[in-house]
């Protein structure tokens, strides 16, 4: 390592005094103007990680659903996964080192992680459409080059597309071609093949309105839609030509406000969906004939997909294990439906894609979705080989068809991470094959009314949780208080957890009616405020 060169270059990307940031649930996120040094340093770190894993590493510049003025950065590990936890710690140390300590911290990480510095390094970089992203990704490149790493800059990509590129490159192209056309072709071919068997149903079934959050999803979907136009016509809204990124639109807005985005024309019973700003989340919704809004969230996506997969799996007669992974935010009705009606095992992990992804890898077929619309289905290598073999070998026509269908499903799901475009195509294929309307899909089960609130406290780390964030172990007395409050309502449940992305505590409550869910959420917020050092205004009842 040429540490002198690092010091010199670093001075051009100097860290503001006293600023400390944390590699959180989805990397570093804050106002774009505070991120230049972090980008440079993540370029350095990506080189070390690449040398250590002898693989290509990805760096994505994005702040997902956050406001346009924000930005962020995260590293992508060799098989398209999120960065390993021990390296998240290295990332935090490196980002917070004062200028004069930077060389020492860099050497430290190299030693701790046993990095062979003579190894070659290769880093792939991409960014979202934020005005600040281009300059910030140049800072990443500066970091990569000063340590002698090679790189390829993909320019504008969705986050899942960068994960896909990393995965392709580290599997010698076996997973697919590491180009944007490679991505379009792989997914579209699987979609067209899968939907061939759908009987032609009316027009309404095959058009979809997509709110692109004024983000990168719009650019990519516009390029891609010609590849699958035989099977589906998508109409883009909030495509970035007028509105501001994530402003009053996008998956996060729709999910948290439980109302449609601005800038989309919804007719009754029309199927619509929203991506978030970097297109790794998707949420569906519609207006019924009475003008009432209905949200079809990540939980319902998991329910649709799992019930769809059960049939061909049963048909091929092979006992591949199927598991569904959710978080504490999963609506109680969805968990009950999956366990009691679908009879599939359901597991709960902590919030954040990496936790769900990890758990889903334990099954032959692991379906994972967060209620907020992050998710995918992972097939183990063994399951994939088995299915591909059966698709070739099986004599009986029906069985072979089922295996072929599963083969297409494998190709259609982005196996590297949750992907709004890939998930959208899977959902559209399933609806077409099953001849289901969005209302029929929504009717799989009825969501329990729920409410989410935020509470400000002096230090959110005074709350610690266990049991996949469903129980608070600290501060003393908080869980007991929550238990007492929950007892007052029917079909109720509540939990609190410190946010991994904002300086607040999140409260979730559900109950038999909206009124009860609202009161429970309010009462739990008050308990947090009193027992966990609330600051500012006390929580107020009513919404
Ligand atoms: C991040 C996570 C998301 C999680 C959210 C929770 C990824 C790619 N994203 O956006 O999965 O739901 O954080 O935020 O992992 P919170 O900790 O503020 O509630
Ligand atoms: Mg996102």
Automatic annotation (TrEMBL):
Family membership: Belongs to the phosphohexose mutase family.
Name of the protein this chain belongs to: Phosphoacetylglucosamine mutase
Domain Phosphoacetylglucosamine mutase AMG1: from-to ranges: 178-283, 297-435
Active site, UniProt feature: 64 (phosphoserine intermediate)
Residues at which substrate binds: 370-372, 497-501, 506
Stretches assigned to the Alpha-D-phosphohexomutase alpha/beta/alpha domain: 51-94, 105-167
A UniProt-annotated Pfam family: AMG1_III
EC number(s) recorded for this UniProt protein: 5.4.2.3
Keywords linked to the UniProt accession: Acetylation, Carbohydrate metabolism, Coiled coil, Isomerase, Magnesium, Metal-binding, Phosphoprotein
CDD domains reported for this sequence: PGM3
InterPro entries, per the entry: A-D-PHexomutase_a/b/a-I (IPR005844), A-D-PHexomutase_a/b/a-I/II/III (IPR016055), A-D-PHexomutase_C (IPR005843), A-D-PHexomutase_C_sf (IPR036900), A-D-PHexomutase_CS (IPR016066), AMG1_II (IPR049023), AMG1_III (IPR049022), PAGM (IPR016657)
Record-level Gene Ontology MF annotations: magnesium ion binding; phosphoacetylglucosamine mutase activity
Cofactor (UniProt): Mg(2+)
Domain Alpha-D-phosphohexomutase C-terminal as annotated: residue spans: 454-524
Function: Catalyzes the conversion of GlcNAc-6-P into GlcNAc-1-P during the synthesis of uridine diphosphate/UDP-GlcNAc, a sugar nucleotide critical to multiple glycosylation pathways including protein N- and O-glycosylation.
Catalytic activity: N-acetyl-alpha-D-glucosamine 1-phosphate = N-acetyl-D-glucosamine 6-phosphate
Top-level taxon of origin: Eukaryota
Annotated residues for binding of Mg(2+): 64, 276, 278, 280
GO BP: carbohydrate metabolic process; hemopoiesis; UDP-N-acetylglucosamine biosynthetic process
Associated pathway: Nucleotide-sugar biosynthesis; UDP-N-acetyl-alpha-D-glucosamine biosynthesis; N-acetyl-alpha-D-glucosamine 1-phosphate from alpha-D-glucosamine 6-phosphate (route I): step 2/2
Cofactor note: Binds 1 Mg(2+) ion per subunit.
Coiled-coil region list: 380-407
